[in-house]
Specification:
Elements: E1 3-9, H1 16-26, E2 30-34, H2 42-46, E3 49-57, E4 61-64, H3 74-78, E5 84-86, E6 92-94, H4 104-108, E7 114-117, E8 120-129, E9 132-139, H5 146-164, E10 168-175, H6 179-185, E11 190-195, H7 199-214, E12 218-224, H8 230-242, E13 247-251, H9 256-262, H10 274-290
Parallel strand pairs: 1-10, 1-11, 2-9, 2-10, 11-12, 12-13
Antiparallel strand pairs: 3-8, 4-7, 5-6, 8-9
The protein binds iron/sulfur cluster (2 copies).
Amino acid sequence: MSKELVVVSGKGGTGKTTLTTSLAYLMKDKIIVDADAEAANMYILMKPEVRHKELFKGNKTAEIDTDVCTKCDICRKLCRFDAISIDENGNYVVDDIKCDSCELCKIACPVNAIEMKDVYSGEWYESDTPYGIMVHPKLYPGAENSGNLVTMVKHKAHIISEEKGIPYILVDGSPGIGCPVISTISGADFVIIVTEPTPAGIHDLKRVKKLCDSFKVKTGVVINKFDLNEDKSKEIEKFAESEKIPLLGKIPFDKCVPKAIVNLQIPYEAAICGSIKKPIEEIYSKAMELL
Ligand code: SF4
Ligand code: SF4
């Protein structure tokens, strides 16, 4: 069974993808998973060549057959989500975005005019990259179910790793503590929480740590841009010590990081980013020890 190393952060923009792509460069024998379904951007730096693509089914949505519908209005009155309305032609129609798939209207319709139809909410891909195989999702605009999509791409990564005997799975998780993060953390062997030295960073770190604890997953902390506020960095270190979370490392602020990303380079790989190489190597080796 392959081991799963996940990188998460309390919010976007803390350097999670910078670290994950750099780890993808350093780590051998792994499958890479972009589990940030709502803002999947790791692939930009990984330069994947898609070799397999599949549609992802989301929740079903009610669909009314206007030829059968007798316009009794039962369904519209029953729908708690206001998903059923009457269009300009006087027909009963369902708003896909508002429909919650509860099927109440289908059960209640006296003439069986309502069916539940499949809705595709995204796609997932298996790709080759210069850094190994990558499994990555794309959620359609406005689509929900990113948690299920994350579960699915992780599951696919495990199937590939079993088939090919690949020992590690490296996951770029979603920010925050919502449904996609829960799906990302579930089943992980070790979670790296990336934070930054701001009041929000500390607050978010505490929330993510609590979430990881509830899944009984081992965690480690990385402080990104630690030198922007040394006092807050110390506060994070103290918190990590009190909670017995290993501090994996601290990455200094360097304008080279956004420059490398703009040039579509992994920060660790970029020649201009010498300042972050050693800290990232240390983070990598500590994380692998604890995995
Ligand atoms: S319950 Fe059935 S028949 Fe009545 S308005 Fe809705 S779809 Fe039409
Ligand atoms: S399935 Fe439920 S949420 Fe969707 S339209 Fe019917 S009653 Fe409303």
